[in-house]
Amino acid sequence: MSSTTLATLQPGDDATIVSIRAEEALHQRLLALGFRSGKHVTLVRKASFSGPLQVRIGTTDIMLRRTEATKITICKAGAGT
Amino acid sequence: MKRVALLGMPNTGKSTLFNRMTGGAARVGNWPGITVELLSGKILLGGDMVEIIDLPGIYDLHGYSDDEQVVRHFLHDNVPDLALVILNTTQIERQMSLLLQLSQLDLNVVVVLNMADEAKKFGISVDVAKMSSLLEMPIFLLSAKYGTGYQEVMHAITKALRYPTPGMAEELRSQLEKDKYIETEMSRVLKQTVQIPAQMSETLTEKLDRVMLHPWLGLPIFFGVMYLLFQGIFLFGQPLQSGVAGVFAWLRDNALTPITGGFPPLLQGLLLDGIYNGLATVAAFIPIIILFFVFMALVEDSGYLSRAAFLMDALMARLGLDGRGFVMMLMGFGCNVPALMGTRVMRSRAMRLLTMLVIPFSLCSARLQVFIFFTAALFAPKTAPLVVFSLYLFSFAAAILTALIFKRRFHSSEPFLLELPPYRFPTARQMALRSWMEVHHFLSRATKFIVAGVVLVWLLTHFPQSAAGSRADTLAGMIGGFFQPVFHPVGINEQLTIALIFGFVAKEIVIGALAVIYGLSGDVLSNAIGQQLDWVQAYSFMLFTLLYTPCLATVVTLQSESRQIKFTALALAWSLVLAWTVSFAFYQGARALGY
After folding, report:
1. Is the dihedral of CA B537, B542, B544, B545 positive or negative?
2. HSE of B179 in the Cβ direction (CA atoms, 13 Å)?
3. B52 vs B41: CA distance, rounded Å
4. How deeply is B138 buried, as exposed, middle or buried, from its count of CB atoms within 10 A (0-12, 13-18, 19+)?
5. Contact yes or no for B415 and A68 at CB 8 A
6. B59 to chain A: which residues are within 8 Å by CB?
7. ipTM exceeding 0.85?
8. pLDDT over 90 percentage in chain B
9. Least CA distance to B322: which residue of chain A?
10. Which of B43, B48, B119, B133 is the residue whose CA sits 20 to 30 A from B307?
């Protein structure tokens, strides 16, 4: 139901990745870092001054910019399906 | 000779294992098919010499970064007898994809699940025997940091090398397209062999990150940490430095002067005032270099550097750079050359070039020597560390200014993704090995550049012989005089001009050259300089030294990494223009204010 992008999450929010809409090179790299549809992702924190986001997938922490986060569609957990 | 290639993702402890295998006795070499240099070391295994090659860390074999292409071309043109694949056990669920990609190449493979110690702490357990049989590869648990499991791995390598390489890496690209197969195979193997606790307990890393990456406290803490590090280097390094200088002076007075007493005066002068004074002055900086790299290793290996990238990315994005660029700048505080080479991880050429334009303004350890020497000579012990810190601020300011001016020319919109590894405390062994390698590197540079440099300076300051007694008539005096119209307006005298010219080759020579020019060393030299110059001249000289071309090695690296003469020329010209302009503004400004 609540389908949105990774960029809208608040620190502490959990979500499931629905789809990734990125160009070939970025897509490849996101895959290598563990971003796949169906994977569980947690937003750990946001850097100040509109800096990057820190997200956790499994045991890996990854930082990415907000622009890249808007390319990842997610389904918020706990908001009903 | 058989060849073993080390392969793995970044942050898997690949280099730690490489250092353990080769004992730090690595050398840089060239390989067919690729234009970059790779570290390799030769070791004795089961009675035969085997060459170990450390390939760059890559996320996947068909990636688009320079490093990923390097690995692909290397495997294509230099099929190794054995690929030693290193995976990080704590992240095995995503690292397995690289292993499966490699397994399709029909290489002879031994797999190492590294960081077994950390995985144990996380509660991750791996059924190694079952994984080995499912993947049909020998697999071993290892802690490269502590050495647990190391003997078993070396034994397996020796055994695996007895068999000939099964396949050739032909049609590499076409074989690498089988993504679907890799995904299903990966989940099959992981499901059966790895157990990861559903909810992990809060780790130390999370607790630390809550403070270190705090929305408001993060940046102040970061600058505080940096300030303390450089204060620490100064505080501990300087007494050691004057101690070493004292020993060298004592040796000269009590041993060398009597021994060389019977030599012709010119030869004695060359040996003592030339080579010995120059080398002794430079050698006195070894304690500071060691301290500097111990601290750098601590920051680098602890995982704090990627946190710095996280904190600084917002600012860097506005400069047209990214957090990685900031990390490279920090690495540049050690030495600009590896920092320039580190920009290879950037895919966008524009961003890479912009980062490479900015890095040479990082105040490297060689320049730090010059500044420590001059601040000690001209400023009170209380203010000297502040003066050095102000030069670090100038270094950042020059980098920011350069990025702002050139960001339109080198515009890019490269995505920025970076892993944040858990905090790790480097072992004493790692730090010792690292600083030993840096000192070794420093000393080999010293023998190459500094001896030749100081001998040349001595010749220039003592010939023609008819000029004895009057400095202005020597070759050095003439060169210094020739450049005076340029350097007089920035307060740099003839002697310092010569030192600057030699500093173009390497900043390590600057102090050695001054020792030869003045015919003095250690504290006596710094007293002489302290009396001849005032602080405005000295600061202007330091600003110029900070901003103009760091060294010949940096220029060569700029060229070999950019492969564009126009870019190298731009970097050179810009740094010279900036150095002169800033020194001029400072010197004339300070004089106009009555200092």
Report:
1. positive
2. 10
3. 5
4. middle
5. yes
6. 29, 32-33
7. yes
8. 23
9. A65
10. B119
Interface test with B, best of A60, A68, A72 (most B CBs within 10 A): A60
B373, B526 Cβ separation under 8 angstroms: yes
Name chain B contacts of A34, Cβ cutoff 8 Å. Answer: 91, 93-94
Nearest-neighbour CA in chain B from A28: distance (Å): 7
Q: What is the pLDDT of residue A2?
A: 64
Neighbour tally for B359: CB within 10 Å: 27
Output the pLDDT for position A80: 43
Helix B304-318 / helix B218-251 crossing angle, nearest 10 deg: 110
Q: Which of B444-448, B480-484, B538-542, B564-568 has the lowest mean pLDDT?
A: B444-448
Distance CA B99, CA B43 (A): 25
pLDDT value for B584: 96
Structure confidence at residue B175 (pLDDT)? 52
In terms of CA atoms, which chain A residue is nearest residue B89? A59
- A48 to chain B: closest CA residue: B215
Write out pLDDT tens, residues A25-75: 788 788 878 888 888 899 999 998 889 999 998 888 899 999 999 999 999
pLDDT digits (tens, 9 = 90+) for B42-56: 888 888 888 898 888
- CA of A44 to nearest chain B CA: how many angstroms apart? 9
Look at A28 and B64 and tell me if their CB atoms are within 8 Å. Answer: yes
CB-neighbour burial class of residue A62 (10 A; exposed 0-12, middle 13-18, buried 19+): buried
Closest approach of chain B CAs to the CA of A36, in angstroms? Answer: 10
Helix/strand/coil for B591: helix
pTM given for the model: 0.72
The pLDDT value given to residue B565 = 93
Which tens digits make up the pLDDT trace of B476-524? 888 888 999 999 999 998 889 988 988 887 888 888 888 888 888 778 8
* A77 touching B (Cβ < 8 Å): no
User: Quick check: B192 pLDDT over 90?
Assistant: no
Instruction: Give the pair of three-digit tokens for residue B549.
Output: 């071309």
pLDDT bucket at B176, cuts 50 / 70 / 90: very low
CB contact under 8 A, B417 and A64: yes
pLDDT of B179 reads: 57
- Gap from B177 CA to chain A (nearest CA, Å): 12
- Per the DSSP assignment, residues forming a β-bridge with B41 are B52
Would you say B247 and B240 are in contact if contact means Cβ atoms under 8 Å apart? no
CA B153, B154, B156, B157 torsion: positive or negative? positive
Task: Fill in the amino acid letter for B32.
Answer: P
- Contact at CB, A61 and B94, closer than 8 angstroms: no
One-character DSSP codes across B182-226 = HHHHHHHHHHHHEE--SSPPPPHHHHHHHHHT-TTTHHHHHHHHH
Nearest in space to B119 (alpha carbons), one of B422, B426, B429: B422
**Residue contact A51–B314, C-beta within 8 A:** yes
Does any CB of chain A come closer than 8 Å to the CB of residue B90?
A: yes
pLDDT given at position B6: 92
Model pLDDT for residues B54-86, shown as the tens digit of each residue: 888 888 887 766 777 788 888 877 888 899 999
Per the listing, tokens 């004695």 go with B268
Kindly write down the DSSP assignment for every residue of B107-166, as one continuous string: --EEEEEE-HHHHHHHT-EE-HHHHHHHHTS-EEE-BTTTTBTHHHHHHHHHHHTTSPP-
Quote the crossing angle between the two packed helices B365-378 and B286-301, to the nearest 10°.
130
Sort residue B42 into left (φ over 0), alpha (ψ -120 to 50) or beta: beta
Q: What angle do CA B504, B507, B510 make, to 5 degrees?
A: 95
